[in-house]
């Protein structure tokens, strides 16, 4: 069956090859590039593969080679509201957000998909490295490039209307295919870092948005060890940039208290947690797990996978996810996502939630 497919083309090699594969399969494909900034020069430049002026030109050239119509959609207002402003407010609240995950959730698979469906398209295709098997998200065959974690926030309906043509191949195979197809982005570097922070200085960006807010750095007993320029510039697990000296043992950020503007530090062992509470659970690979279920969970993009017992329960503000890790994890930050995978292979996404709280492991608390 021929489908009308909107191919999201970032200007990188992955989305170009994805669009080419969908077109070659006989579908009616239209390419679209998302303009995410009113002032593109303020975003990272230099062929980064995401959000730059060069990227829109690269996407257009790829569409010309493939032979499909191409448009640019201005999504800058939605991006600023849903991704940039959310990024700032989450740090201000003492959390550590993942802007790429938020962009997938709110821009690429909500705003874009809604518009695509309204225009009569059947599906949206992207260059994400993930498979869709029997309507569920499954890890890519290329473990190093797997992006199932950043797509774990999607709803079942969004997954139903999504196409991921690259999940069955490696990045090296994608580049080789791009070369064979005559796509000029074949050797283009992958995108890294945060696209809307041009110089890569996250702390400086947050200080410009929120202003410097000097406060105290304390140990777990409440002793003042030093000062900082803003609690919003720290994240749980951080070691560098604390500005502390005089201790033979390294210290890590254990918690951030935004109201009192206080950062608490301590030994690495104190970072270990074995319990997690997640807010706003989303189930895209199964019905809500209301009974304790053996699963596997991932707590950061490309992070370690942990065996865990997972269930959804009713909390004070609605459904929440309860996760009990079989072994402690370190550096777990609120604001990140906990993505739940099946317990058998750990490859199939079941759902996700935003980490709201953690419980320190008994051994670390003693």
TrEMBL record:
Enzyme class at the top of the EC tree: transferase
BP GO annotations: tRNA wobble position uridine thiolation
Record-annotated membrane-spanning stretches: none
Binding positions (ATP): 8-15, 34, 127
An annotated GO cellular component: cytoplasm
A molecular function GO annotation: tRNA-uridine 2-sulfurtransferase activity
Entry EC number(s): 2.8.1.13
Catalytic activity reported: S-sulfanyl-L-cysteinyl-[protein] + uridine(34) in tRNA + AH2 + ATP = 2-thiouridine(34) in tRNA + L-cysteinyl-[protein] + A + AMP + diphosphate + H(+)
Record-linked NCBIfam families: PRK00143.1, trmU
Biological function: Catalyzes the 2-thiolation of uridine at the wobble position (U34) of tRNA, leading to the formation of s(2)U34.
Similarity field: Belongs to the MnmA/TRMU family.
Protein name: tRNA-specific 2-thiouridylase MnmA
